[in-house]
Design goal:
Number of helices: 13
Structural class: alpha/beta
Distance between the termini: 65 Å
CATH class of the largest domain: Alpha Beta
CATH superfamily of the largest domain: FAD/NAD(P)-binding domain
């Protein structure tokens, strides 16, 4: 079969790229090695983790805040089996939705491992041992990533696990040890902490969510500590072993002393690694960069081989589903002869703990490093009428603006539903709004978004109203 475009990988980047190509009139095929479409995000990442986060959040509220609201419950218990079953239904519905979208857009789907024979020929190796070859004018590599492994810490997928196994545990851990204080570890740790597990986070850096604005990490650590999290920062993990139903994690503390932490499960959540195995990149002359992990691309996301593009987790930049989606659209439109653009500085980052964390643009640390003169304004959710009404008063919104022009340079927030609120900041920054612009926009009252308005007023003219 001959196609205008073949996409390898059906995660958010891949399936969005395929749909956009089809919308633009290109004959398109997509190759997926697993039995369901959607990639890591829909199957063992974003979607199932959010399903469990929502379920555990309901349980947390029922156990700890309903009484204050005047709702009394007797005999409350967490049914982990049902939570997992609901999560599986959510995943099934979402992956089925992608299958439907492929059919709707007349995109041919191939199940199997796609690899390059040459730049225009893709071999699809199927699960039954058979294979077939298809031809393409253009190819988009969107094979995503997998959990990063530590060579000195073997994962047995039973007691020492990755994020994938953590989404299907057979029981609520008594003591869950999380190696890594980033997004994945904190989200999964939150699920089980809410259900009653003791959670210990062992992190090499001196703060959690270390890539975000430092104030966010400090505030999130305080909030999660209330939930029962224990944090061991500036600790270097050196190994882990399983003895029966126990996991013993060894580490060096900040003084260089050797310590151990014992739990019944241990999640290794130290990031993700680009997945390029089996693609046959050597057959078309593509060499990997960044310690042999990432596919190098130019400003148009085209590899060193003309007509071969790569997007998402397999190339440089943040490993985020929405980044991959935007890149998928970008490449499809580029292939069709259009002139799209992506502002990588305005791709928001979100942590789906509670309170949620969201950020876009430059952090204070980055602005200081650049020597950029800026103004900062913040507003605490404890001063928000809406947050008081919902009993979600932890956190704040911070707006950073250029000291001379007042243009918004960065927005960082931690609090209720900020994963949604951050979109307002992204829109404003895409149109190069000033802090005064944000502060003069009428916001409905009472809403969580008023905190952004107040922080913008504080940054622009130090005139927040409610503090």
């Amino acid at each position: 079969m001959q196609y205008d475009v073949v996409v390898i990988g059906s995660g958010p980047g891949g399936y969005v790229a395929a749909i956009r190509c089809a919308q633009l009139g290109l004959k398109t095929a997509i190759i997926e090695k697993y039995s369901t479409l959607g990639g890591t995000c829909l199957n063992v990442g974003c979607i199932p983790s959010k399903a469990l986060l929502d379920s555990s959040e309901h349980y947390q509220n029922a156990a700890h805040t309903f009484k204050t609201h005047g709702i009394n419950i007797k005999g409350l218990e967490a049914d982990l089996t049902q939570m997992m079953a609901r999560k599986d239904v959510v995943v099934k519905e979402n992956t089925a939705g992608i299958t439907y979208l492929m059919k709707k857009n007349k995109i041919t789907t191939y199940q199997g491992l796609g690899s390059f024979v040459d730049k225009n020929t893709i071999k699809v190796a199927k699960a039954d041992g058979s294979s077939e070859s298809i031809n393409a004018e253009k190819v988009i590599i969107a094979t995503g990533s997998k959990p990063t492994a530590l060579p000195f810490l073997p994962v047995d997928k039973k007691r020492i696990i990755t994020s994938t196994e953590a989404l299907s545990l057979p029981e609520i851990p008594k003591h869950l040890v999380v190696i890594g204080g980033g997004v994945i570890g904190l989200e999964l740790g939150s699920v089980y902490a809410r259900l009653g597990a003791k959670v210990t986070v062992v992190e090499f850096m001196d703060s959690i969510i270390a890539t975000m604005d430092k104030t966010l990490g400090k505030e999130l650590q305080k909030s999660l500590s209330k939930l029962g999290f224990e944090f061991m920062l500036s600790h270097k993990v050196t190994g882990a072993s399983v003895k029966g139903k126990k996991v013993i994690v060894s580490a060096d503390n900040p003084k260089g002393e050797k310590i151990t932490v014992e739990g019944d499960y241990c999640i290794v959540a130290v990031g993700r690694t680009a997945y390029t195995e089996g693609l046959g990149l050597e057959n078309i002359g593509i060499s990997l960069e960044e310690r042999g992990k990432k596919i190098p691309v130019n400003e148009h996301l085209e590899t060193s081989v003309p007509g071969i593009y790569a997007i998402g987790d397999v190339i440089k930049g943040a490993m985020l589903a929405h980044k991959a989606e935007d890149e998928g659209t970008y490449v499809a439109e580029t292939i069709a002869g259009q002139k799209p653009h992506i502002n990588y500085n305005l791709i928001p980052g979100v942590v789906y703990t509670w309170p949620e964390v969201a950020s876009v643009g430059y952090t204070e640390e980055q602005l200081k490093e650049q020597g950029k003169k800026y103004k900062a304004g913040s507003f605490p959710f404890k001063a928000s009428g809406r947050a008081r009404a919902s009993m979600d008063t932890d956190g704040f919104v911070k707006v950073l603006a250029d000291a001379e022009t007042d243009e918004v340079l960065g927005v960082h927030m931690i609090g209720p539903r900020v994963a949604d609120v951050i979109a307002e900041a992204v829109v404003a920054m895409e149109f190069r709004a000033s802090a005064e612009d944000l502060g003069r926009i009428c916001h409905a009252h009472p809403t969580y978004t008023e905190a952004l308005k107040e922080a913008a007023l504080a940054a622009s003219e130090n005139r927040a109203i409610h503090i």
